[in-house]
Amino acid sequence: MVLWWIGNIVLLVVIVPVLVALLNRVLAALERIRGATDDILRGGGALAAELDGVPEALATTDATVADVAHGAVRYAGSVGKLLG
Q1: What's the average model confidence in pLDDT over 43-70?
Q2: Which of 10, 41, 44, 65 is such that its CA lies 20 to 30 A from the CA of 50?
Q3: 82 pLDDT higher than 90
Q4: How far is CA 15 from the centre of its chain?
Q5: What is the pLDDT of residues 7-36, one digit of tens each?
Q6: What is the pTM of this model?
Q7: How far apart are CA 33 and CA 40, in angstroms?
Q8: Dist. CA 23–CA 2, nearest whole Å
Q9: Dist. CA 56–CA 58, nearest whole Å
Q10: DSSP notation for 1-64
Q11: CA–CA dist 37, 46 (Å, integer)
């Protein structure tokens, strides 16, 4: 019975404070992660508001690429005739 009481005292004096300290570290890390995710969410919301003009810009880019491709084909044809 004495060993049982010694085991209980060791449990209360050594193991429980270690577990509380470890739990405290885990909860602190969790709070840091929560703060980081909140920052990411705010940044993503601000970024989403800036993306309203992207479809029009992509349409302009697509038209420009088509014009450049047409010009490149004409240029290559002319160079082919000169070298040819």
Answers
A1: 90
A2: 65
A3: no
A4: 38
A5: 889 888 988 899 999 999 999 999 999 999
A6: 0.50
A7: 10
A8: 30
A9: 5
A10: -HHHHHHHHHIIIIIHHHHHHHHHHHHHHHHHHHHHHHHHHHHHHHHHHHTTTHHHHHHHHHHH
A11: 14
